[in-house]
Structure formats: C-alpha cells, structure tokens
Design brief:
Elements (H helix, E strand, L loop, with lengths): L5 H28 L6 H27 L2 H50 L1
Helix pairs in contact: 1-2, 2-3
Length: 119
Amino acid sequence: MSTMSPVANQNVQQMNSDMRFVGMFCIIYGGFCCLSIIGAVVGVPLIFCGLRLREAADSFTTWMTNKDENALTTGFEKQGRFFYIQKILIIVSLVFMVLYFAFLIIFGVGMMMKNFNNF
C-alpha cells in the first residue's frame, strides 16, 4: 500500500476526530431520548448509530497506524452501518411528519366544518 500525502493524512485525521464527536453526540442524545418510553424508539437506534461511528473511527485509527487493510474494510463497513441506520431514522421521521401534518389538516378541516355548521 502506498503512503498517503500529508494533506490526505490530515483529512483522515480530521474526519476521524469528527466521527468520534458525532458518534459520542449520538450516544449521549440517544441516552437522553431513552429517558422516556416513546423516546426510546428513537434513542436506541441513535445509540447503535453512535457506537458504529465510533467503531469506524477506531478502525480508521488502526488502519492509519498499522496500514492493516482489514481495519480499513471494517472501518468502511461500520461507517456504512451508521449511514444505513441514519437513513432509516430519516425515512421514519419523514413518514411520521407527513402523518402528523395530515392529522392536523384533517382535524383542522373537521373543526372548520363544525364551526361552519354552527352558524
């Protein structure tokens, strides 16, 4: 394996640092969400998300120090799992948001019809 340029090395180190921060934030935020039963539906996947991202950062660190191809592959797999879980959470959030707005519209129209019939 060839050596990385200093700029690429610095970019990987910065990405690694950012992955650790975002991973820890996901874990802490997921923990706070788990304080309620309903919030645990979002909190548990967030905790797993954060763990996968921190594991990916660990694998990238191992790759940078040892140049182990398996660590690089593992890092990409863990990072891919993070993005997969995030994608599922985004899709579920969008579905709930659409259902919420549909409920508001239906409820609002029902209230307007009720008030209109009272006149």
